[in-house]
Amino acid sequence: MTDGERGADGARVDTAPAVELRGITKRFPGVVANSRIDLVVARAEVHALCGENGAGKSTLMKILYGMQAPDEGTVGVDGEPVAFRSPADAIAAGIGMVHQHFMLADNLTVAENVLLGASGGIGRAARERIAELARTVGLNAAPDERVERLGVADRQRLEILKVLYRGARTVILDEPTSVLVPQEVDELFATLRGMRAEGYTFLFISHKLDEVRAIADRITVIRRGRSVGTADPSTVTNRELAEMMVGSELPTPDAGASTVTDREVLRVEGLGLPAPSGDRDLLDGIDLVVHAGEVVGIAGVEGNGQTELVETIMGMRRGARGRVLLGGRDLTGAGTMARREAGVGYVPEDRSRYGLLGEQTLWENRVLGFQTRTPIARHGLVDRSAARSDTERIVRDFDVRTPGIDVTAAALSGGNQQKLVVGRELSGDPVLLIAAHPTRGVDVGAQAGIWAELRRARAAGLAVLLVSADLDELIGLSDTLAVILDGRLVGTADPATVTPEELGTAMTGAAA
């Protein structure tokens, strides 16, 4: 590390990097997550970190943020060696992290969220500092505004504001655009560029290669726990980046030839859902039909009713109006298990919270939702041997990379967890698959595998209701597109002709 060099006037100019990781190695039982990784991030740059799930990105960032300690190697911040024992140490050294899933309390105000876990109260100085940082990140909300009233883009800005308030000058952004529409991505990038000009440094983790090339000053690629090189975004192509990451070309979502039939599988009529407070509707008069061999995509800015629509169709929410029919059979009063037994598969939007038991083995996770059906159940009891055998089939057929089926789900990378969930839900010959963000946070290799399985199932006659924040995925996989806004379906779009920008405009209501 260097302390600095002499400028033209003879004064010392500090050229130490914002972050310097040298020879970082981290081992876990049966796997080397990081193997002698070097990463140097200059001050006031946006440095992207790319790699497939399981490549070691998350482990490396957890080491930088003090969540884990390296087995070997050194960490430097602003030219000084550091040894973080906790995130509090990292924050004290000016390192902040904005996680992929927002960590905000909806019932609290902007100021209260900023000050959660920070020292001091909401005095005049704190409010002035929050207002100053709000201008820096482009947040127009007042300190007293409740977070539940903020849109997704402003929530993202608030998360950044939180780490800046704690003194961060280097910010780790984990998949920051996963829930943003194109216009919001452009706004976020404008914010990052403005902050970079003020001296802030960003580590930008993403699997969206177009966005990485648009915002990054440099790109470091990690593959199977090793750094395979640093690329210049002005000259590297998406194909070259994909080949560095996974050794193959970048996949594209493509539904292929139409397989839509006239046979109705799912019919939703007049679906309504009141908010718990009773003062408004979360869903209002939803009418929807999905045919065998058809993918119906639901496009909407997060928080406009997609989650409620999926959970109401699955029978997870009560008090709804209207009807839900599967193959002509009225399931409106049926519970979730009855709907699953009728042939509904479900890929939830958050696999960690709703799709898997992290501390249970893979074969035990295979049982979830299928404990009353073959091949998992026989004579009313779970057949352990059959469950293990079928888990091995899923691991093989869906390319779930794991040392074995007796490891816990939490030991797998995010992409491999997702492939396990998709494989489980496509088992048992479902007639309808409800897929909520099926490739959120997974790498290009896992994306390609999941897309291929959805195309194969669709061609075999499966009806799919697809919810996704990835507009390219929605447009590429869907046969029909519907736009949801404020709990209502407000229009449709033709996937063959609509652009992501046009779809994003419809989603925000700007088209009206």
Would you kindly provide a written description of the structure presented here, covering whatever features stand out?
- The chain starts with a strand and ends with a helix.
- 46% of the residues are buried.
- Among the domains are: 5-94 and 169-246, 3-Layer(aba) Sandwich (Rossmann fold), CATH 3.40.50.300; 261-343 and 465-512, Rossmann fold, CATH 3.40.50.
- The protein is of the alpha/beta class.
- It is globular.
- The strands form six sheets. It has a six-stranded mixed sheet with strand order 8-9-10-5-11-12, with helices on both faces. The chain has a six-stranded mixed sheet with strand order 18-21-22-15-23-24, sandwiched between helices.
- Helix content is 32%, strand content 25%.
- This is Nucleoside ABC transporter ATP-binding protein.
- Residues 19-249, 266-511 form the ABC transporter domain.
- Keywords: ATP-binding, Cell membrane, Membrane, Nucleotide-binding, Repeat, Translocase, Transport.
Which structural class matches the secondary elements?
alpha/beta
| Helix content range | 25-40%
Supply Rg: 24 Å
Largest beta sheet: strand ordering: 8-9-10-5-11-12
CATH architecture annotation name of the domain at 5-94 and 169-246: 3-Layer(aba) Sandwich
Give the overall silhouette: globular
Distance between the termini: 56 Å
Mean pLDDT: 88
* Percentage of residues in DSSP E strands: 25-35%
Contiguous runs where pLDDT drops below 50 for at least 5 residues:
1-13
Number of helices: 17
CATH fold-type name of the domain at 5-94 and 169-246: Rossmann fold
How does the major sheet shape up?
A: 6 strands, mixed
| The level-1 CATH class of the domain at 5-94 and 169-246 | Alpha Beta
**Strand segment count:** 24
According to CATH, the homologous superfamily of the domain at 5-94 and 169-246 is P-loop containing nucleotide triphosphate hydrolases
Subcellular location: Cell membrane
Membrane topology: Peripheral membrane protein
Protein name: Nucleoside ABC transporter ATP-binding protein
Domain ABC transporter: 19-249, 266-511
